Amino acid sequence: MGIATDAPDPVQIDVHLRDGTLASLADDVRKGLSRYPRELPPKYFYDARGSELFEQITELPEYYPSQVEQEILDAAGTRIVELVRPAEIVELGPGSARKTTALLQPMIELEPGGRYIPVDVSETAVQDCAARLVATYESLAVHGVVGDFERHLDRIPQQSGRRLITFLGGTIGNLDHPRRSALLSALRALLGPDDRLLVGTDMVKDRERLEAAYNDSAGVTAEFNRNMLRVINDNLEGDLDPEMFDHVAFYNEHARRIEMWLRAREDVSARIAALGMDVDFEAGEEIRTEISCKFTRDMLTREYSAAGLEPVAWYTDADGLFALSLTGPAAATD
Ligand code: AVJ
């Protein structure tokens, strides 16, 4: 661990996406639009416009997960930091990282000179949060990683002390079960015996409340959903008309998840020039753009256990709408 004598730049940002992303977008779009049902990965919502729309979603009265998670973090942030005593926080998918203050502030108060490592697919999100945080916390170093947490976990910088990995917002719910278990196992492999993992999850609850959160009356979620088509147009020379698609979001109770779809209003023909691909939709045909899984405490305990993680602490709101679970590597049994 070095001591900063001649004030090195407190911000470093490594970009691992620029080249890889277009290739993976091209691949994912080609495959996703050729299969049935058509499907596009939700990570492509988050270009600069999509990230901005998501920020607006977090302010919506119907979108309780952000508010409730913030409430839980405000109440428990200091306790979590006192329990873990991290020298650094690695955050997967921080977006604007506004919530993370509830952990960074106590980390720095406990011991100045910590490090924050945001890992996000949005380069602007990483730059903006890095600039804001080093301006706010004089002793904080930020080492941003622009990358995909399902592909670039190996690019996370060498550990400098006890580490807390956070995955907030319920974003883990965007992954289906096989991908969750792969990610949790990969995260488990990054943890030393004293490191901890903090995951935010939206909980199973009544359909009405869930569906309202994804069908806001201001139509922001609909715009966010349609933004996927703009991202394809902008990056792959597409001519998909977002206005020809309706936003559809509902709770699939059997699978315990919200599903978001884009549904063609009429017959639509589009061309994605960079892929040399023509795509035709019949009126009513749909593309799935997101799943957002909802959890129970039991489900989580089982999934953690399967990944070699064991519960350390559990934080929730009075109504049990959202939860934060703190886990650590399960004690070796061999
Ligand atoms: C940021 C992925 C957790 O699934 O609720 C919000 C994204 N999609 N409204 C979620 C989202 C529609 C959000 N996550």
Jot down its keywords.
alpha/beta; 14 strands; single chain; 334 residues; four-stranded mixed beta sheet; binds N,N,N-trimethyl-histidine; 9 helices
Please give the structural blueprint.
Elements: E1 11-15, H1 18-34, E2 38-39, H2 48-58, H3 64-84, E3 88-92, H4 101-110, E4 115-120, H5 123-136, E5 141-146, E6 163-167, H6 177-190, E7 196-202, H7 207-213, H8 220-236, E8 245-252, E9 257-264, E10 268-272, E11 277-281, E12 286-293, H9 297-306, E13 309-316, E14 322-329
Parallel strand pairs: 1-5, 2-12, 3-4, 3-6, 4-5, 6-7
Antiparallel strand pairs: 7-14, 8-9, 9-12, 10-11, 13-14
Helix pairs in contact: 2-8, 3-4
Bound molecules: N,N,N-trimethyl-histidine.
How does this model look, in words?
This protein is α/β, with parallel strands linked by helices and 334 residues long. Helix content is 36%, strand content 26%. It contains 9 helices and 14 strands. The protein has helices spanning 18-34, 48-58, 64-84, 101-110, 123-136, 177-190, 207-213, 220-236, 297-306, and strands at 11-15, 38-39, 88-92, 115-120, 141-146, 163-167, 196-202, 245-252, 257-264, 268-272, 277-281, 286-293, 309-316, 322-329. α2 (48-58) packs antiparallel against α8 (220-236) and α3 packs parallel to α4. The longest helix is centred in the first third of the chain and has 21 residues, at 64-84. It binds N,N,N-trimethyl-histidine (AVJ).
